[in-house]
Amino acid sequence: MTAMPPTTGHLQLIRFARQIGSSVKVMINTQPHEPMVNERVLALRDAVKRSGLRNVEVSHYNKTIEQDPKTPGFWDMWQKLMIKFGIKPGDNIVASEPYGQKLAEITGTQFFPSDINRDINCAVATHIRNDPAAHFDEILPEFQRYLTTTVTVFGAESTGKTTLSRQLAEKLGGQWVFEYARPYLENTLNEITPRSMKNIWIGQAALQRHVQNLGGKPYVIQDTDLFSTVGYWQFPHWRNQIGKCPSGLIKDAKRLKSDLYIITASNIPFEPDPLRYGGDVREGSDEYWINVCKHYGLPYIILNNPDPNIRLRQAVREIKKVSKQKAGRISFDRHGL
Known about the structure:
By secondary structure, the chain is of the alpha/beta class. It contains 14 helices and 9 strands. 33% of the residues are buried.
């Protein structure tokens, strides 16, 4: 198999093969010029492990080889390659493509076709590569994380971040992620101290890592992230109270950074909140949060229009652009076999 990308169909194929024989050797054939070679292999190995399949070995062959079956010597090449990987007369070949019969003929083995017509599992790698978001549930969870588009709604207090992030998650069928600081401060002591800031950092980082492992949805929409914690920690008027921003927090924020930051402009009415410490004004300006993005090299856009419907449409459009660019990582066409 090429496993580009690894799908639920590939795992089904391996499971079927395991029912045929007492042990299974999976051949993943990649070529050096193809995208995400190692990630494909690791994802499939992890999926096999997660599924509890025993006596399954995932082998990897990563060399440039001929792709056109009409080329002279093509099948001789495959016969030698299969022998190199340990195939012996009397073994079984399981494949979800008709070429499995030819491989069986040249190696003296038996062919067991597996769901060739995709009656049980309709996952087709070509369709997934063309539109990963539309077929996200067909991608192995172990590979989904490479294609998930993570978005953080960012900016000053009371600029509609929570409302917009919820709307985006609903509109795009994504996973919404709350701001950890809110439930933490609501359920502990509502005050800003070095200890509370450190706990918010630890909790927000844990929340973001947890969501990365959930899988299942093509978009993760966050109502703020660790760079907000960085921004608050670096407020000049908070420095005497909580000290210098820890380098560990900045490292965690960089490791968990989003694919896009959507800055909501502060041109809408301010709404008081007991968790806001600036009284009836915003503590950070739009310029401040834009500079945070610039300083750390974060990809961002600014929603300047105060109309919430226009903001939503603009945000959806920009997110889909980023998602399409990310999907391009798996865009390739292997002709022939």
